Amino acid sequence: MDGWVALLLVVVVGGFLAWYAHYPFLPSKWRYGWPDSKHRPERQALAKARRARRTGRDTADRIVAEAERGFANGIEPLQRRVQELGRAREELYRQGPDKEVKPELWLWPLGLLEHELLFLKEEAAEGQAEPRKVVGERLPLAGLTVKLEHSQDYVYIRVTMPDGTRRSQPYPRHQEIAADALVEAIHNQVVRHEESRRDLQRRDADLVAEIGRAEAALAKAEEAGRPELDEAKERARTERARADAVLRAARDTWKTDAGGLRPWR
Fold first, then answer.
1. Taking the mean position of all CA atoms in its chain, how far away is CA 107?
2. Which whole number is the average pLDDT over 46-68?
3. Rounded distance, CA 245 to CA 237, Å?
4. Checking phi first, is residue 106 left (phi over 0); if not, alpha (psi -120 to 50) or beta?
5. Distance CA 214, CA 220 (A)
6. How far apart are CA 126 and CA 124, in angstroms?
7. With helix as H, strand as E and coil as C, how does the chain read?
């Protein structure tokens, strides 16, 4: 009995598949043609058209890839040059730690760095018997003037800022020679600082000019290479359209020669 049931199921399923293969498939309403000897020539022609389409699209992709590679090869050195110059300009203004200048001449509470004059102070440190020395004020050396003045009991290092404000530090008369040496060191370092700043400005101006020239060369190279790239992309679009048209024509021929049956694959 089980054998008859199985045979009946095979017949029913086979009949359904045969009907299903020739039933209109939504939404196209096409019927499908199975691979058989009846439609072999049409299938071969369709397979050839598919291969031709793949070849055409591969050719189009290769045309664009080669054009883009050539365009990139023409502008990448100039792009790198612009980037290198930009980094060099950033590095120009990236100063390292401000180094001490003639620390053997320092007189408490004054200290001298490459680009700053320091007024130091003592600050109580938790857990330590002795206070620690910290920076109380930093005066940039740019535009700073300094001179030594005397009174009956003291000498004064007087510092004038660019805005005209002043700061003084007194020392006993017996420290006059040491104070004068520090004033001289401060003055000389201000001169060196100003020279360094002018040199920095000159180098920055040179880099700005060089960046401008590099950017102009890059823009010129992009403008010169763009038409060739656009032309290659247009040729690729034409090649893809031609390859698609070949396949569409083969499919239309199949529909006509195969009596309206849609190819299974």
1. 49
2. 85
3. 12
4. beta
5. 10
6. 7
7. CHHHHHHHHHHHHHHHHHHHHCCCECCCCEEEECCCHHHHHHHHHHHHHHHHHHHHHHHHHHHHHHHHHHHHHHHHHHHHHHHHHHHHHHHHCCCCCCCECCHHHCCCCEEEECCEEEEEEEECCCCCCCCEEEEEEEEECCCCEEEEEECCCEEEEEEECCCCCEEEEEEEHHHHHHHHHHHHHHHHHHHHHHHHHHHHHHHHHHHHHHHHHHHHHHHHHHHHHHHHHHHHHHHHHHHHHHHHHHHHHHHHHHHHHCCCEEECC
pLDDT digits (tens, 9 = 90+) for 156-205: 999 999 999 999 999 999 999 999 999 999 999 999 999 988 998 999 99
Task: Give Cα separations from 79 to 51, 211, 223 (angstroms).
Answer: 41, 11, 14
The count of C-alpha atoms lying within 13 angstroms of the C-alpha of 113, restricted to the half-sphere facing its C-beta, is 17
Per DSSP bridges, beta strands 31-33 and 261-263 are: parallel
User: Who has greater pLDDT, 195 or 248?
Assistant: 195
pLDDT at res. 178: 93
- Other C-beta atoms lying within 10 Å of the C-beta of residue 236: 20
Token output for 22:
């020739």
85-113 per-position pLDDT tens digit: 999 988 887 777 778 889 899 999 999 99
* CA–CA dist 162, 204 (Å, integer): 24
Rounded to a whole number of angstroms, the CA Rg of the chain reads: 44
